[in-house]
Amino acid sequence: MTVITRDPLDVAAPVIELSGARKTYHTGDIEFEALRGIDCRIFPGEYVAIVGPSGSGKSTLMNILGCLDVLTSGRYVLAGEDVSQMDEVALASARNRRIGFVFQQFHLLSSLTALGNVELPLVYAGVAPAERRERAMVALQRVGLGDKSRNHPGQLSGGQQQRVAIARALVTEPAIVLADEPTGNLDSHSTRDVLGMLDDLHAEGSTIVLITHESDVAARAGTVYNVTDGQFVGAGTEIAK
Amino acid sequence: MRPADLLASSWRAIRTHKMRSALTMLGIVVGIASVVLTVGLGLGTQKDVSEQIAALGSDLLIVSPGSSTDESGMRGGFGSGETLTLTDADALASEVAVPDAADVAPEKASSLSLEYGESNWTTDVTGTSTSWPEVRSRDLLYGSFFTEDDAADGASVIVLGAETAEELFGTTSVVGQEVTIDGEALEVVGVLAEAGSSGETSLDDIAVVPMTTMVERLDDSGNSESVDTIYVKAASSDSLSAASQETTALLLNLHGIASADDADFTVEVQDSLLDAATSVYEKLTVLLTGIAALALLVGGIGVMNIMLVSVTERTREIGLRKALGAAPANIRNQFLIEAMILGLSGGAVGVIIGVGLALALPSVLGSTIVVSGLALVVSVVVAVGIGAIFGVYPAARAARLAPIDALRDQ
Ligand SMILES: Nc1ncnc2c1ncn2[C@@H]1O[C@H](COP(=O)(O)OP(=O)(O)OP(=O)(O)O)[C@@H](O)[C@H]1O
Ligand SMILES: [Mg+2]
């Protein structure tokens, strides 16, 4: 492992820029500071893993990065847009355009086919049906499920369901793919399958943020951040391949 | 989000929960079916009543002696019972003076005892002209009405109401028989068909004789000229008010009265009947509308209840949709449209059932039910409106859900 040293010629703007990010939860009278001043920049094409013990604030960070929640203080710039001050409608649009989510519980709609699930983000983007179907089909083929497009989630294995979720995350060509414990509900075979998938995406240029508590999963990423008690411990470490 | 996609996703949610959607619709179905039925029943009753009134003659003017201000005591003691005369009736019958009147029939009635053999029966005996059946919209069951010759001669003839004939003879087939009134023998030339009753008085317990016969042979009031009532039948119900004005003008002139305020007679349209019928109809309508509104309210609450359950049950779906970029308005509209589709389908089914019952029930109930196209359209619109109104709150709740809370929901 070596401390990150960036190529000085890399002038690309960061996709994600967090500065002094704090998040405080209020439960009744009790205040709990889940994020305690995180600074972090993630650049296009990076594959970042965030690791840390349970309760350290990984999911909280993921919610912030995914525009599902807002910071109590600090600044979050996503693809050049300051997200910290956005209202709900603007946040919804930011999620739609910039973020592709992969959840631990897959979160597919059982009433829709695989294709229908992949189309969903495009529905909210207002894309016309024909174009939508075509793009969703391409995304499904990319995750190797072109032949399962008409299956409902109940007719797919866990690994296949997660691949549908990955296709759904890709279909809008987001600035970043956020995956929170994407292999948490999968057996070792499917885990390899899904991680291989993320490797391929990374190789094709996608920016990926992976949250995990398994070190062998984190080992696949280019950079690993360690979270403890809502803070990054040490600088991001680059994994030597 | 495209409107078609919004509609499609609402429709899919309804189809996913078929049983629940059907049960939710049921409340609306019952409500709308009862609206269709009650409105139909109300319209049907109104139609029945106006037909009955038309049969009684809504093109009829009733001219009675005495001023309408009598009751205030202003013209009391003026001899108001005798201000209308046969001369007035003859003048009103003139086509020149009252062009909008089709027929005129004076009436002079007296309660007299009719005898046949051992039996006798007291009834109102009315003297009138030959136009009476036309003016009062009466048909004959047997025989015929008396003729112009009978009227001119003061012939000893009489026409009996069905009830009177029944009471006196035990049968209505009595043409050719003789009845005696005060020792005067009168031949029965006709029997009137039944006409039911108007208020408390039976229209079938009646005896009719020529005016001359009445005046010269039967009436002992001493005033041979006066009449009780003059009926003026307008050419049509449209010319009723014209006929009324002409009648008033002519009588004022004949009586030498300058101002209508001083009139010693009253011209009435047969409004009172209509008023009474209308007030019954209005009460019925209020009652039925109340029932229908209650049924719809219950249906609406059913929609709200199920939509709230649905929002709770689909919390995770809502969270996911928001994570994928659904704005609060998208979520709200999806639930609102779901509620409106439930209202629309419930309304449509309710209309079909309501119309079915409206077609089937009259033969059972014996009452008329009028199915109006406008009422059907309004019913469906109301059903959709109820879906929307009772869907607003659940939809707003769904839209307000925070995406992280919703996603975390298990
Ligand atoms: N909505 C909330 N209200 C109050 N406290 C919260 C809320 N969400 C999280 N927390 C607290 O914040 C801390 C961090 O939670 P978080 O879910 O980010 O942990 P994590 O690192 O993802 O843990 P795990 O690995 O178990 O998923 C925890 O102590 C948790 O109790
Ligand atoms: Mg977590």
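Chain A touches chain B at residues 63, 66, 68-69, 88-89, 92-93, 95-97, 101, 103, 107, 109, 111-112, 120-121, 123-126, 128-129, 168 (CB under 8 Å).
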